[in-house]
Amino acid sequence: MDAVAKKYRYITKECLFCNSTNEADHPIVYQKNFRDEDLDAGVFSARRTADHFHYDMVRCSKTGLLFSRHILDDEALNELYKGSVVTFGEQTEFIKRDYWRPIADKVGGWQRKRALDIGCSNGFFMEVLKDNGYEEVHGVEPGTEPKAIARADIRDNIYTGFYGPGLYPENHFDLITCFQTLDHLSDPLGMLRNMLYNTKPGGHVYMIMHNTNALQAKIFGERSPIIDVEHIYLFNKENLSELCRKAGFKVTSVFDVKNGYPMSYWVRMSPLPMKKMWVGTLKVLGMYEKMLDINAGNMGIILEKV
Ligand SMILES: [Zn+2]
């Protein structure tokens, strides 16, 4: 049976700082490498092994912002994300530890009444927050499958859909977290402004995302897993801070995030050639399941609403 060829509508994205796509200041860095029929919800699922599809990507010569110039319209993106599935699996416990570490010694001085995790997946970080003293923990997640497998005491506080205006009251949360999500959005500034609205004065926002200035991104270039159809705007520490200030936040700190996984995970996720050879060698050396903490090219940022 012939598959019906999918036709998507595309929209043009502007630089978040120049508000244009002026080609002289935003030259193309990587050329689009897929056709519409290559896309399905699997391509839009967290942590699946890289497919390496990406749109035309351009870089702002003033700010270094790396972004997709023509992207699928919201309707198509929403459909693809709704069908996305949880693929964290065995890695969840490691991710919980890695994401908690940067705020572990700070939350003692913070109010811990209400928290929100945007793009919460199966609620793994909601669990961490609840287990560390937050009284009321909410989550937002577009995919329907993650909620079904969320921990029982968390599940009812997960809203299935997209985060946006009207969902939560003004000055409501002591902490809003958002991991590996900002670079998937077609309007990150709008999202940040809405986060500011929902945060209590004196409250915090804590986000983690890829860093385009990380060593891996520079070494692997187009083969880096961050050059991906899921990513619309990609940041570095400077332009991310600038965008957060533009939204009205005070930037408290920006830092590298270390990830600790077994060696087997790093080998699977890496764009290294000859993976089988690496796996064999590491197994022989008895190092395949050894834990390894490395800077995988993620950065974190902590913001305050003053
Ligand atoms: Zn620009």
From TrEMBL:
Q: State which residue ranges cross the membrane.
A: none
Query: Cross-referenced PANTHER family, in alphabetical order?
Result: METHYLTRANSFERASE TYPE 11, TRANS-ACONITATE 2-METHYLTRANSFERASE-RELATED
Q: Which SUPFAM superfamilies match?
A: S-adenosyl-L-methionine-dependent methyltransferases
Q: What is this protein called?
A: Class I SAM-dependent methyltransferase
Return the InterPro entries for the record.
Answer: SAM-dependent_MTases_sf
Q: Which domain of life is it from?
A: Bacteria
